[in-house]
Write a structure and sequence with these properties.
The chain contains eight helices and nine strands. The strands form two sheets. A seven-stranded parallel beta sheet has the order 3-4-5-6-7-8-9, covered by helices on one side. It has 376 residues and is α/β, with parallel strands linked by helices.
Amino acid sequence: MVAAASLVVAAGAVAGVLAAFDDKPASDEAAPPEVSASPRLAPLPAVPSASAPPTTGSAPPSPSPSARRTQSPTPPRSDTKREHTTTAAGRLYRHPDSQVLAWVRSHTGDPRHAVIASRIAEQPAAVWFADYAPDTVTARVAAVTSGGAALGRVPVVVPYAIPGRDCGGHSQGGAPGLDAYDAWIDRFAAGLGSREVIVVLEPDSVAQTECLSAGDRADRFASLARAGRVLKSANPRARVYFDAGHSGWNAPGKQAAWLRQAGAASPESSDGIFSNVSNFHTTADEVAYDRRVLDALGGPADLGAVIDTSRNGNGAPADGEWCDPSGRRLGRTPTLSTGESRIDAYLWVKLPGESDGCKGRPGTFTASYAYDLASS
């Protein structure tokens, strides 16, 4: 059965900086303000009646998330309070180059501007590195980590170049082989600096491995374990998290067994697991699932989990739809203070408004979709 994961347009520098495309005749493109903490969300204005006239333009291309399999989709459960109003961003970093910031800067007259600006663009989000560009990756990672360090904030970076990515699906691509990937990770790690940084290591790389032969799976897991060691050796303050899928996908024991093979139980490689990237399962479901995975995983007691809450405010669709499903809304704002044991952070790994490929071109910011998420 099909569900959502990490639909990526693999090109360019940092995630969320693609030219925008919309499914409405409105102008949907971009530019960036300053980095700041995420405020409480302002009351909604009236629903806009008309779109601004279209304009053209583009920003540097770059990645955004895709699609995955789900086994038993969780019925949509509306958390009674609006999840995205509950907590501030803490010390997380908002990188100034993103598609949503570019759109906000370029579309001040659009009637959707205030909602998208205050509820999405103000929030810190992950920066994806989905292109295989070894000659430039060190400098591009360093630009993000040094930007966070200069402000005393914690960036979130997503290396996404594992060979055989997405089993040849929407997000196919990555390095040409594991040797090339290992060398790319070395260069990625060289840009991490010496300050705190969160690394969301290769979405889908563990949960979506049944398409691989047993030998290829073992080789991938060895490469992921190596990646974790390289990242943490390059920057001992880096916090590296491994792919746990999500609560509607693999059973906790099965997922934990794969994670153990990939090095996620080893403190030399790992700080824990991540879940729900580009998906919609409720925070409560992910908290419970991640704790079960961590229990089954073993390893040090301080291993934790981070959860993508960017689009999970209404939970997952009952039919398991993963591609820009309607009726979704923003989840909890990103924070490093969750108040939940073993849950290290709520993050926006998938930037809300970047399409899975149905309401816009895959990975591109779609203002109508962003507005729907932010105003639900």
